[in-house]
Amino acid sequence: MEFAELESKPPLALHLIWIIVILQFNLDGKSKLYKDVSLAHLFMMNNVHYIVQKVKGSTELREMIGDDYLRKLTGKFRQSATNYQRATWVGVLYCLRDEGLHVSGSFSSGVSKSALRERFKSFNGMFEEVHRTQATWLIPDTQLREELRISISEHLIPAYRSFLGRFRSHIESGRHPENYIKYSVEDLESAVLDFFEGCPVSQHSRKRSQ
């Protein structure tokens, strides 16, 4: 915070802000122990969000630290959520690009089926791994969990729907299309609902069938 912002605050408020700052440094240090960068960002998001909710839930705490610092904390956990999405989904969405799929020559031009098959295989493998892993991660706050799922869907589902719409026919006209198109759009929508529940995918499937 700027020194001018702190000058006007009473000693107890300054002490509280200092405690929160130290806590954030400690959390940041612990997050670096995670080998998975996406999980490190999720860890920071969960914990800073928890601090924000505690402050918002106490009139005394909110009055002491002030709305300006509360906005900074809110920005911190939202930035962690953005960092998580970049770390996790940029590579997955990169599979759904058009670049590298089109071929042209002196006699013909079109889509390289071998490149397209590899692209679908890459997407399937990456999504399966993310789905399997991140279903076991937990976001305790129900609203935060739902917000992040919605944000993931808003990026993933339209990209996949568009990619599938453009290239499905090229795969289905070849052999064993089921080896490459493993997900319908509805399958992905359903799979995203498994994320951040804190239990393996197999348990989610049982819950949905009950």
UniProtKB/TrEMBL annotation:
The keyword Mitochondrion does not apply. One of its GO terms (biological process) is exocytosis. GO terms for molecular function: phosphatidylinositol-4,5-bisphosphate binding. Keywords: Exocytosis, Protein transport, Transport. Residues 7-193 form the Exocyst complex subunit Exo70 C-terminal domain. GO terms for cellular component: exocyst. Pfam families: Exo70_C. The keyword Protein transport applies. InterPro entries: Cullin_repeat-like_dom_sf (IPR016159), Exo70 (IPR004140), Exo70_C (IPR046364). PANTHER family: EXOCYST COMPLEX PROTEIN EXO70, EXOCYST SUBUNIT EXO70 FAMILY PROTEIN. Component of the exocyst complex. Belongs to the EXO70 family. This is Exocyst subunit Exo70 family protein.
